[in-house]
Amino acid sequence: MAISVSRSGFVDKLKAHLELLDPVTWISVFPCLAGGVMASGNMQPTLYDYGMLALLFIIYGPLGTGFSQSVNDYYDLELDRVNESTRPIPSGRISEREAIWNWSIVLLTAVSLGVWISLSIGGQRGIVFASCLLVGLVLGYIYSAPPLKLKKNIFFSAPAVGLSYGFITYLSANALFSDIRPEVAGLAGLNFFMAVALIIMNDFKSAEGDARSGMKSLTVLIGARNTFLVAFVIIDLVFAVFAFLAWNWGFHYLMVLILVSLVVNIVIQVPIYTDPGTGASFMQTAVSDGFGNAIGKSDVQEHNAFLRFQVINNILFLLNQFTAAALIGIKYM
Fold it and tell me: What Gene3D superfamilies is this protein classified in (predicted)?
């Protein structure tokens, strides 16, 4: 009986540590990693390359993203006691000391694997890979940790997220299998700005709490309506520049597809900007019953409108992005 109780306690503790790493967030870096690998055009169907690919996803997913989420929970403990009391630390399932062990072990594992991969690659590619990982881990820490705590100001937090999730992931994935392709630098830049726009709107969900706690989100500074406008302009410019780059790279059919996607996005944006409560309401089922488990759900009107838009925007952007990455990879094969 005692063994059974002990085993149950160990499993519960393990689950709490895993929850602290927030597995649902790991997939956010996977599209850029996949795109970077595809665009390299140099991954071979060998056991070695498949192993390196798996390590790449582990480093930036469970380890890298998990590290940033664990650090965030540790430094947001007092806020979570009020807003998310069921999280592992405020609920008492993990002590503060255990939380430090959690993100410290994950950090050391990520650094160790990253150093090994960088040395295995060697040369400039190894330097690029190691530099990108180091930048990502540092940003993952100072995003939540004092004294910098970048998340307190949207002018620091949004670029930090854009770099971590959209830029360095593309470069790292490319460097793992080949020299950096010029086109990949372009795709990485587009993903940086797309991530900035999305994180700006994601702050709708905590606008009231941000205002009370002194967090300077864009919504707090200029209001929800103007925040939609700023984010939509950034997103539309991303698609417009993407179309120009596709034309410049010689991918003319892709350029047409991107421009069609831009038009679809604008058609969705107008009613959402006009009335966040009812705009693009035909997508509500997708948020409530379909993609909700992946992108989240919300009772905040503006944030719920953002989620409806995000479903369509992300599908269109990923479709075009993967098509571009595949065409780039074929070009260099």
Answer: UbiA prenyltransferase
Cβ burial 25-55 (10 Å sphere, 16+ → b, else e): ebebbebbbbbbbbbbbbbeeeeeeeebbeb
Omega prior to 147 cis, within 30 of 0: yes
Instruction: Please write the tens of the pLDDT for every residue from 22-66.
Output: 999 999 999 999 999 999 999 999 999 999 999 999 999 999 999
Rounded distance, CA 259 to CA 316, Å? 11
SS3 call for 153: strand
Segment 66-109, tens digit of pLDDT: 999 999 999 988 877 877 788 999 999 999 999 999 999 999 99
> What pTM value is reported for the model?
0.91
The label of the residue with tokens 């892709």 reads: 254
Name the CATH architecture for the domain at 13-180: Orthogonal Bundle (1.10)
- Cα dist from 120 to 39, 117, 157, 168, 240, whole Å: 21, 5, 33, 19, 39
Amino acid identity, residue 141? Y
